[in-house]
Design brief:
7 strands, four-stranded antiparallel beta sheet, 6 helices, three-stranded antiparallel beta sheet, 35% helix, Alpha-Beta Plaits, Arc Repressor Mutant, subunit A, alpha+beta
């Protein structure tokens, strides 16, 4: 499970700094969970790699500025002791958005049903990370990160959604896509986050 301190740090960095283009070194360490020593090695490697593209990685007033598109390269190569949200093996990004307004509890029950279709885990948040969002028109929709492969989870998600009140495809838009960039997916999740407990 995510530690309380890590949760607070992630909430801060992904809600307050969500539109940031460049991060400094301390922010990169907090987001990815790498040590200062590892950060120095990565900066040395990547400064030569991106020498021709100075907008991605540059130094201004003795402070490194790192573009958000290359944050993925700062993720630890080995499993760290700390369990950060970015360090997990996310494979699937799931979204469902019903046309009508359904309460938070209904969406939470759908997430629970999806999680129940897989073998029980000691820490289910290691395999799934749901976020509830409210649209401008007041309806809720859900984003869900999963470590399960798309082939496994796609049928489960669609059957659970269609089994509920949302029977036809026109009543609810469901999308299951691969995660190409963990940091970008998590940044998107935290743009307007409302968490709830099961």
């Amino acid at each position: 499970m995510i530690k309380e301190e890590a949760t607070k740090a992630l909430e801060y960095y992904f809600s307050k700094l969500k539109r940031k283009i460049h991060y400094d070194t301390q922010e990169v360490m907090d987001i990815t969970g790498i040590s200062e020593r590892t950060l120095r090695y990565r900066l040395a490697e990547l400064s030569t790699k991106y020498k021709e593209v100075p907008a991605l990685l540059y130094q201004k007033n003795r402070v490194w500025k790192i573009h958000n598109s290359i944050l993925e390269e700062f993720i630890p190569k080995y499993k760290s002791k700390g369990n950060h949200l970015v360090n997990r093996d996310w494979n699937s990004f799931i979204t469902w958005a019903p046309r009508d307004n359904y309460c938070k509890e209904y969406h939470a029950s759908l997430v629970k049903q999806i999680m129940d279709n897989f073998p029980p885990e000691k820490y289910p948040t290691e395999k799934f990370f749901p976020v509830l969002e409210k649209n401008q028109n007041g309806t809720y929709h859900v984003h869900l990160l999963s470590s399960k492969p798309i082939e496994e989870i796609k049928n489960v998600v669609e059957s659970v959604i269609r089994k509920g009140v949302l029977l036809s495809k026109t009543d609810c838009r469901v999308e299951v896509a691969p995660v190409y960039s963990k940091t970008q997916a998590i940044t998107y999740l935290f743009k307007q986050k409302e968490t709830w407990t099961f």
